[in-house]
């Protein structure tokens, strides 16, 4: 072999050895990186910032279920950094995501903060973000489920409530036709038809009121409203009912208070509270309507000395068609919509309704509304009326001084 050939052969062998060593080094680096990745618990860049900006409960866990990072809302479910996932459904969801290597979503009920009496319906999603890391997002859909159930109940209850008076009117009409030769029976059936028609009218009217309050732009007549006039109108509208029930109506508290809103809706809301208080009060008791105000808030409280509301019913008392005492409500012709109207009317005015009650001692419903300053202007019509009244008074005084007859 000549010298040039030997040189070329040596060069080729060196090149092969160099390439082999390079490949071996690259493989070694990759193997090391892969091993570090498999054993590393370092959270990928940006995940912590994303968790910090999330409203839903979320966390990053390793293959053993150890929590490495959390969002602020995760603490509501007792999930904290350094702890392990206690819920078996969540652990199973994490394992399923690691098995598939992708994302897995399930819905189930879990408890918040270890409180077994507070089960929440959640939609949980687990996504693999590393060899050993899984991102778990928990969305609480309990309120959405409750609203969906309320919609279904509203449709079912409305159909049922409307069916009852409509069916009664139909049967009574047939009874009148059968008793056409008996004037006394006809009068009895006609009176019952009138009562059922009134109940049907009340029910449809309240459904329409509630629908308007829940619709966008529910307040159309917004102006400065005198609470004194609201209270006076509400009490006046229920004086006959109170007299029939033997219940005294009493008004007290601050006066000269104003709010911003729709006077008619507020009168209806306060009137519903007064009507309920009268219905659930014993004969000879008192229903009080009081007003208390500070610089920002005005409170309208309606108190009774009635049967009170059981603790189990207080959470649902403002739901549509819910009746704490079904038998009494049926007997008195209640629709189950009055307190729901109160709640939505108050919310439309930027306020809230609070309830205090003790069984056997009575209940107090308090409407809290934002207060406004007393309007400093009087419209031109009122001004002109006052001017005319003053002129008439001066003229009458002049005639009296001159000995004329008024």
TrEMBL record:
Subcellular localization(s) per the UniProt record: Cell membrane
Transmembrane domains' residue ranges: 6-29
Enzyme Commission identifier(s): 2.7.13.3
SUPFAM superfamilies associated with the record: ATPase domain of HSP90 chaperone/DNA topoisomerase II/histidine kinase (SSF55874), Homodimeric domain of signal transducing histidine kinase (SSF47384)
Region annotation Disordered: where it falls in the sequence: 370-406
Keyword Transmembrane helix: yes
InterPro entries hit by this protein: BphY/WalK/GraS-like, HATPase_C_sf, HATPase_dom, His_kinase_dom, HisK_dim/P_dom, HisK_dim/P_sf, Sig_transdc_His_kin-like_C
Domain Histidine kinase: 157-373
PROSITE patterns per the UniProt record, alphabetical: HIS_KIN (PS50109)
Biased composition (Basic residues): 383-393
Gene3D superfamilies referenced in this protein's UniProt entry, alphabetically: 1.10.287.130, Histidine kinase-like ATPase, C-terminal domain
Lineage: superkingdom: Bacteria
Enzyme class of the recorded protein, top EC level: transferase
Name of protein: Sensor-like histidine kinase SenX3
Organism: Microbacterium sp. A8/3-1
């Amino acid at each position: 072999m000549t010298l040039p050939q030997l040189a070329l052969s040596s060069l080729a062998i060196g090149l092969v050895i160099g390439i082999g060593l390079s490949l071996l080094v690259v493989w070694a680096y990759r193997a090391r990186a892969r091993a570090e990745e498999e054993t590393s618990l370092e959270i990928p860049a940006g995940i912590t910032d994303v968790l910090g900006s999330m409203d839903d409960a979320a966390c990053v866990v390793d293959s053993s279920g150890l929590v490495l990072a959390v969002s602020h809302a995760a603490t509501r479910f007792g999930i904290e950094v350094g702890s392990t996932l206690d819920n078996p459904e969540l652990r199973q969801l994490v394992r399923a995501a690691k098995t598939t290597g992708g994302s897995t979503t399930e819905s189930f009920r879990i408890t918040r903060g270890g409180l077994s009496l507070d089960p929440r319906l959640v939609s949980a999603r687990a996504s693999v973000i590393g060899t050993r890391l899984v991102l778990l997002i928990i969305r609480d859909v309990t309120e959405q489920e409750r609203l969906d159930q309320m919609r279904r109940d509203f449709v079912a209850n409305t159909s049922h409530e409307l069916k009852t008076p409509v069916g009664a009117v139909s049967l009574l009409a047939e009874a009148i036709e059968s008793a056409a030769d008996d004037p006394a029976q006809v009068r009895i059936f006609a009176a019952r038809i009138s009562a059922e028609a009134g109940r049907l009218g009340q029910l449809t009217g309240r459904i329409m009121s509630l629908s308007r309050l829940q619709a966008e732009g529910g307040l159309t007549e917004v102006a400065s409203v005198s609470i004194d006039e609201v209270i006076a109108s509400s009490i006046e509208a229920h004086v006959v009912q109170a007299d029939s029930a033997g219940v005294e109506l009493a008004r007290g508290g601050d006066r000269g208070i104003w709010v911003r809103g729709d006077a008619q809706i507020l009168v209806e809301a306060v009137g519903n509270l007064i009507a309920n208080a009268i219905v659930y009060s014993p004969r000879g008791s008192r229903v009080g309507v009081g007003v208390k105000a500070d610089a920002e808030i005005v409170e309208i409280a309606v108190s009774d000395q009635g049967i009170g509301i059981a603790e189990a019913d207080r959470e649902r008392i403002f739901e549509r068609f819910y009746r704490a005492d079904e038998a009494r409500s049926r007997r008195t012709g209640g629709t189950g919509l009055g307190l729901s109207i109160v709640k939505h009317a108050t919310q439309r005015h930027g306020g809230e309704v609070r309830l205090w009650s003790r069984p056997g001692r009575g209940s107090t419903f308090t409407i809290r509304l934002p207060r406004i300053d007393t309007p400093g202007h009087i419209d031109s019509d009122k001004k002109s009326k006052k001017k005319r009244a003053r002129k008439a008074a001066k003229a009458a005084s002049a005639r009296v001084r001159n000995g004329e007859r008024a």
